[in-house]
């Protein structure tokens, strides 16, 4: 029946292949049919078996998909709301998998479920690389300074807010922290407690820069208490405050899948912060496990990247129609670094007179 097998199925035994295909629905679709509609809720993904499809958002063509490509992974693992439309350009044979079928395979520890997670994470990482390049190109067009904020600025913040620094927060109820985050939605309390033990407790005093724009990325944080302001440099001694993150929100995820890439925003403790942390070495160790714990972490990563890239894409699409809009650009940069609320808050008091935007 299948003379061509998408890469997702490579390496499966005949038994695993047969059981996996029982969970996928085979669709024969004529040309000119829109199979995914932007804005609609549809938690399922599609693997292209044969044919060619067009991916677009609004009037903007994003890409073409061909045999072996994975579509709709952001809908399957994320909110389920489609961020782009997909239409067949030729007659196509597709393999569709909904959330219930994926979750069955995952809980059964079927290798195809873990392969699907790896494929989705790899695909989103590739898109992240493209987003970074677009932001860098756009930054040159707006003369935004893509560099580490001068240490003189960091010192000014420390003087205005506090000395900063880190501390040992002691035990943190990691399961409760993960339960606050939409990235870990659907996991049982018992499973969350087990996954939480894979993280390291972290504490930062008011004024401490947990991550600094321009520095190499090495770790991510999931907030347990306190608040963090997200800033983007727009010139020498000038920053744009873009968002404030709260418990349950995360930042720095992208450094785990693209290590040593420069941070695209700074995150400073607005008030004393406790968090769960994971560095790239720990991530590499646990995220490729063929078990449910590795799966929970991979799905969290996929959800974070999907949400962040969707938001960044919107900002960059709008920027293309409004060249030089600094606000859109800094929002796109923050989206690459943080997963949470991207709000145009008022300038924090401690930045008034320190580094006006």
What can you tell me about this protein's structure?
The termini are far apart. This protein has helices spanning 14-23, 73-77, 99-107, 111-142, 151-161, 174-180, 189-196, 254-257, 280-286, 292-321, 326-337, and strands at 25-29, 34-36, 44-50, 53-57, 60-65, 70-71, 85-88, 92-98, 166-167, 200-204, 209-211, 219-225, 228-235, 238-245, 250-251, 266-269, 273-279, 338-339. Strand 13 (228-235) and strand 14 (238-245) form a beta hairpin. The longest helix has 32 residues, at 111-142. It has eleven helices and 18 strands. A six-stranded antiparallel beta sheet has the order 9-10-17-12-15-18. By secondary structure, it is α+β, with helices and mostly antiparallel strands.
Query: What is the CA-CA span between the terminal residues?
Result: 61 Å
Number of helices: 11
Share of helical residues: 25-40%
Largest sheet: 6 strands, antiparallel
Q: Low-confidence spans: pLDDT under 50, at least 5 residues?
A: 343-348, 350-357
Query: Helix/strand-derived class?
Result: alpha+beta
N to C succession of SSEs: HEEEEEEHEEHHHEHHEEEEEEHEEHHHE
Number of beta-strand segments: 18
CATH topology of the largest domain: Jelly Rolls
Output the CATH class name of the largest domain: Mainly Beta
Number of domains: 2
Overall pLDDT metric: 83
CATH architecture of the largest domain: Sandwich
Shape: globular
Rg is 21 Å
The CATH H-level homologous superfamily of the largest domain: Jelly Rolls
Strand line-up in the sheet with most strands? 9-10-17-12-15-18
* Residue share in β-strands: 15-25%
């Amino acid at each position: 029946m299948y003379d061509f097998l998408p890469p997702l199925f490579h390496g499966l035994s005949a038994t695993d292949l047969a059981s996996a295909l029982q969970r996928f629905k085979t669709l024969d679709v004529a040309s000119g049919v829109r199979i995914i509609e932007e804005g609609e809720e549809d938690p399922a993904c599609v693997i292209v078996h044969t044919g060619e499809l067009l991916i677009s958002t609004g009037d903007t063509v994003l890409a073409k998909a061909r045999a072996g490509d994975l579509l709709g992974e952001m809908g399957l693992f994320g909110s389920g709301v489609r961020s782009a439309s997909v239409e067949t350009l030729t007659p196509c044979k597709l393999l569709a998998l909904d959330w219930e079928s994926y979750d069955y395979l995952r809980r059964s520890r079927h290798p195809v479920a873990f392969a699907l997670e790896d494929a989705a994470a790899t695909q989103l990482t590739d898109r992240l690389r493209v987003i970074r390049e677009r932001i860098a190109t756009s930054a040159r067009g707006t003369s935004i300074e893509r560099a580490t904020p001068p240490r003189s600025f960091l010192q000014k913040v420390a003087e205005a807010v506090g000395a900063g620094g880190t501390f040992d927060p002691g035990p943190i109820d990691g399961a409760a922290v993960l339960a606050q985050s939409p990235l870990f939605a659907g996991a049982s309390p018992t499973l969350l407690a087990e996954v939480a033990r894979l993280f390291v407790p972290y504490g930062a005093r008011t004024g401490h820069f947990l991550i600094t724009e321009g520095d190499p990325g090495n770790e991510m944080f999931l907030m347990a208490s306190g608040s963090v302001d997200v800033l983007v440099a727009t010139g020498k001694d000038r920053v744009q405050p873009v968002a404030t993150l709260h418990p349950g929100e995360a930042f720095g995820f992208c450094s785990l899948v693209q290590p040593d890439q420069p941070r695209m925003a700074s995150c400073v403790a607005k008030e004393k912060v406790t968090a769960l942390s994971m560095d790239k070495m720990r991530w590499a160790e646990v995220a490729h496990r063929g078990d449910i714990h590795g799966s929970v972490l991979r799905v969290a990563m996929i959800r974070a990247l999907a949400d962040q890239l969707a938001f960044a894409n919107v900002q960059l699409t709008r920027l293309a129609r409004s060249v030089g809009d600094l606000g859109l650009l800094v929002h796109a940069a923050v989206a690459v670094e943080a997963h949470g609320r991207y709000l145009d808050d008022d300038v924090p008091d401690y930045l008034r007179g320190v580094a006006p935007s």
